[in-house]
Amino acid sequence: MLTNFRKQKTVLRFALWFVIIAFVVTIFLVWGVGDKVANANFLMKINGQTVSYEEYSNALENTRNYMRSIFGDNFDSLAQDGELEKKVIEDLTNKYLLIQKAKENGVTVSDDEVLAVITSIPSFQVDGQFNKEAYQTILARSRMTPQQFEESVRTDRLAEKMRELITSSVAVSDEEVAKEYTYRNKKASVSYITLDAENFSHEVKAEEAVLKEYFSANAENYRIPKRIKVLYTYFDPATFTPAAVISDQDAESYYVRNQDQFNTPEAVHARHILIRVEDWHNQEAVKAALTKTESIINEIKGGLDFAEAARKYSADSSAVNGGDLGFFTKGQMVPEFEQAAFALNTGEVSGVVKTMYGYHIIKAEEKKEASKPALEEVKEDIKKLLTAQAGEAEFREYVFGRYTAIVRAANITAYNGTAEKQLPVRETGFFSAEDIVEPVSANPDVMNKLFRLSKSEVSQVETINGVSYIFEIADVQESRIPEFDEVRSVVQTDYIRAEAVRIAAAKAEEAMKEADIKAAADKLGSTFTTTPQFIRVQQIPGIGMNLELNDMIFEAGAAKFIARPFVNGSSVYAVYVNEIAEPSMDELKDYAAMIKNELLMTKSDEALKAYLDEAKAKAKIEISPFYENLFK
Questions:
Q1: What backbone torsions phi and psi does residue 467 show, to the nearest 5 degrees?
Q2: 7 vs 136: CA distance, rounded Å
Q3: pLDDT tens-digit profile of 523-549?
């Protein structure tokens, strides 16, 4: 940890802009020397600074997990066409550009700022307080040292501070707020005629020559995506039987080497009441807080229940729980608070305790002395732990051995052709990157890796839902535009639909030359619908929500048709604007602050984007040839 680590109960919390940093590093085990992806040593270089493929992979996985936590199972269907991968690459590029610009401008990050970020991360907290052991354990599991993690936090905070510097000059005037309020709250009422394109399909002549011409002009719409067929073998740790046998001596050796693991430190379960002092230089406020604290102590001595007093008087968030802080050990609270709490006997209430936050009253509910179990008490637990660890190591070694043998043989097919004991092999049919196919659909990152391999090439070991897989590309069908005869029926359907829409739009456009909606309806031999008033961001009754159409309505003005017929799928609308009503400005004061904040955020984003676009235009960005497809 930081050398000047401060034991504070509460610290400033920073909402880091760079969301792809999850702060608890996902463990990515590289099982072997594998395919060409594993052999590449960088993803890209930005002005000479290397961004590794491993950093990209971690960022992608963390971002994917974050998005799944928001969108649930729907996320995988939303994250198509490599958009997520491109967004992560863009964010990484922006991050390094901001870091470089920050250094150029002399921006720095102090140890206190790093400390504030780390101690605010929920994964490193126990009962709402930073826990050093949890911090070290999580980092150890992630194969990262505290120094490495703290440096990553420092660089991320550096990027954030540069972003703040860029956006700090943005301002929003009262005139802009009023204009935005008017824009949002204008009301319109329209009348419209609906033409269903299917009613005009009979007018379309789908001649062969015309269909071929349509296909030629829209050939990319019929492109067949790249498809692959995959062989794979798999290794399930649940069915693996390790050979290791853990003896009593092994357990004793572990117990001796890891004494600290078994020590249970002294702990106290306490409640407290906080009378906060915001400014210690304000002597009147300090004196008033002290007087109030002493008065509460007298009430408690007079019989007021401590928990009830905490709920009534405490300024701390624990007040709702009667001031209950649960158990804590030494090192988790600020020194003055800790010293007072541990000095109390069970059931005892302290006097006034002063800390940086204000004045406290503490009650010790329960105390636990430091203890250490005897070897016999924990021996079986140690054996189970060591057995599991040995089994995991044996499993990894076994899988890596099979993987090495497969690579030496060239692929799974070649290995099974000569091996005494063949590996189980399954085969998929041909599938595209958008298809759902087991087991790879459970991990989009694995799917992307497979589509970067060539025929007969094998993947590195991939873990999906706890099972280890090795894949071989059995066959590849490259993306192609089909022959006309292969898709003739689809082309015919598309052509008829497109022409029917064109005919309906032409009829609507001709009708919209009339003076008003009634005349247009008479010309079409149709009826029209009139809507109640609606604002720009509301659905149009009977049509639905469409921002493009809403903009066309408000741009047209009152007593006019919109600029052109509006097409939505197979429906064509002739829309007439009856009225545009300006909003009353009386309520502007109620929404001004909200609108100003939203405009400020928008302008800040625009300022940041402009700055980064300029930085990218001047930057030297080198892409690894192994990963060029990610940038397309």
A1: -100, 140
A2: 16
A3: 999 999 999 999 998 899 889 888 899
Q: Degrees (nearest 5) of the Cα angle 232, 234, 236? A: 165
What is the pTM (predicted TM-score) of this model?
0.56
**Dihedral angle sign, alpha carbons of residues 534, 538, 542, 548:** positive
399, containing H or E segment: helix 375-409
* Amino acid (one-letter) located at 314: S
Residue 447 to residue 439: CA distance in whole angstroms: 9
Mark residue 253 as left, alpha or beta (left: phi above 0; alpha: psi -120 to 50; beta: remaining): alpha
Give the containing element (helix H, strand E) for 447.
helix 444-450
The span from the CA of 179 to the CA of 23, in Å, is: 41
**Sign, Cα dihedral of 30, 35, 37, 40:** positive
Pairwise CA distance, residues 120 & 113, whole Å = 11
Assign 307 a pLDDT band (cuts: 50, 70, 90): very high
Residue type for 139, please? L
Residue whose pair of structure tokens reads 């545009």 in the numeric block: 580
Neighbours of 461 (CB within 10 A): 22
pLDDT confidence tier of residue 11, bands split at 50, 70 and 90: very low
- CB neighbour list of residue 131: distance below 8 Å, 6 or more residues apart: 124, 125, 332
Residue in 326, 334, 211, 309 with CA at minimum distance from that of residue 268: 326
The 10s digit of each residue's pLDDT in 583-630 is 999 889 889 999 999 999 999 999 999 999 999 999 999 998 878 777
**C-alpha torsion sign, points 85, 90, 91, 92:** positive
Distance CA 471, CA 459 (A): 5
Q: Which residues contact 609 (CB under 8 A, 6 or more apart)?
A: none
Q: What is the pLDDT of residues 548-574, one digit of tens each?
A: 999 999 999 999 999 999 999 999 999
Element (H, E) at 189: strand 187-196
Name the amino acid, one letter, at 262: F
Nearest alpha-carbon partner for 53 in 28, 21, 76, 20: 28
Helix axes 588-618, 174-185, angle to 10 degrees: 110
Sequence letter at residue 559: A
Q: Are 615 and 205 in contact (CB under 8 A)?
A: no
